[in-house]
Amino acid sequence: MMKLSPFKFGSVEITFPVLLAPMAGYTDAAMRTLCLEHGTGAVYTELASAEGLRRDAGKTFQVLEPAEGEHPVAGHIFGADPQAMAEAARMIEQDGRFDWIDLNCGCPVKKVVSRGAGAALLKDLPLLGRIVEAVKAAVSLPVSVKTRIGFNAETAGHLEIAKVVEQSGADMVAVHARLAKNFHGGDPDWETLGEMKRALKIPVIGNGGVNTPGDAERMVAVSGVDGVMIGRGAIGNPWIFQEIRTGCTARRSAAERRDMMAEHLRRLVALMEKRHARSGRAERHSPEEAACVLFRTHIPYYVKGMYDKKQLLMKLATLVSVDSIMEEVETLVSKNR
Q1: Disulfide check for 92: which of 5, 75, 123, 308 has CB 3.0–4.6 Å away?
Q2: CB 64 within 8 A of CB 92
Q3: Could you report the per-residue pLDDT of 63-88, keeping only the tens digit for each?
Q4: Cα 225 from Cα 222, distance rounded (Å)
Q5: How far apart are CA 40 and CA 14, in angstroms?
Q6: 7-246: CATH class
Q7: In whole angstroms, how large is the CA radius of gyration of the chain?
Q8: Which residues make Cβ contacts (< 8 Å) with residue 62, sequence separation at least 6?
Q9: How confident is the model at residue 330, as a pLDDT?
Q10: Mean pLDDT score, 227-250
């Protein structure tokens, strides 16, 4: 079993430092609560725009909104304007339901980078530093940074990034051990991650390349990080946190996966009903339809490795009710008993 010690940053204590990474389109309250119940030590919301919170707080805040009793949870925001990021952080703090604020300084997606935000900040470390300083000055909640080991081979190095993050006042940092230009491709560089860990006094969480309990153990052994962050390895697999916690890996039966899908989908419908009730706008989809559309991105992960899954995946675009999805899932399960 992997040995990881609890740690604190500011007022937040992480008793089991294996965390769910923020992932746009995935880590809404439905997925986060499932992962918390299956052992993760903390969760992050999806990526929310600081400018969006400024202009249309109600709609954008839906991306952040935690479930009742969901803790520890970080409000995860991105932007390139220190003042806007500070204002967004104040809104999150004033909401009263978040444990800390996390600043995205590593997302490599074009629509984020083109705004000068996310991983683009790794090409402008003085701006990154000003953003962290502005947010720290605006709130009393702890502030962390989610970043990468660099943008590309020609831009600032990992130790320079580490230095700016810490000196600007961040309480904790989570580092994806790949360059932004590589997105999720290639092997993660856990040795470089370890160099950042050794250069910093604040807690360092390692991210990138952890898809199994064995991966988590190797990352910690190589880098010495204080904790592990899991992203895609947790999609369709909330059990991974409990497996790392206990050191026991189990093959999930088709029936177990079906039951988890049904519960995940139920939570998505409840989340969409809540959002629709608050929006006061005419919506394109009913809450159930919206939940089913969102769930399409999760299904391929839940059925990974199952015999004859192609039949289900080919029908996804036509499945807009819970019953229709679960009927197809049940058919697949019957073929995999």
Answers
A1: 75
A2: yes
A3: 999 999 999 999 999 999 999 999 99
A4: 9
A5: 10
A6: alpha beta
A7: 20
A8: 275, 278, 279
A9: 97
A10: 95
Task: Tell me the catalytic residues.
Answer: 107
**For residue 213, how many other CB atoms are within 10 A of its CB?**
23
pLDDT at 37: 98
- Can you give the length of the chain in residues? 337
Domain ranges of the chain: 7-246, 254-335
> Which one, of 117, 75, 69, lies nearest residue 94 by Cα?
75
Which of 11, 78, 4 is CA-nearest to residue 41?
4
What angle do helix axes 57-64 and 254-279 make, rounded to 10 degrees?
Answer: 160
For residues 321 and 288, the answer to whether their CB atoms sit within 8 Å is yes
Distance, CA of 6 to CA of 24 (rounded, Å): 27
C-alpha 203/C-alpha 26 separation (Å) is 26
* Three-state SS at 68: coil
Beta strands in the chain (DSSP E): 7-9, 12-14, 18-20, 43-44, 48-49, 73-78, 100-105, 143-148, 172-176, 204-207, 227-230
Tokens at residue 111, please? Answer: 């629509």
Helix (H, G, I), strand (E, B) or coil at 6: coil
Q: Rounded distance, CA 10 to CA 24, Å? A: 26
Paired tokens of 320: 């807009």
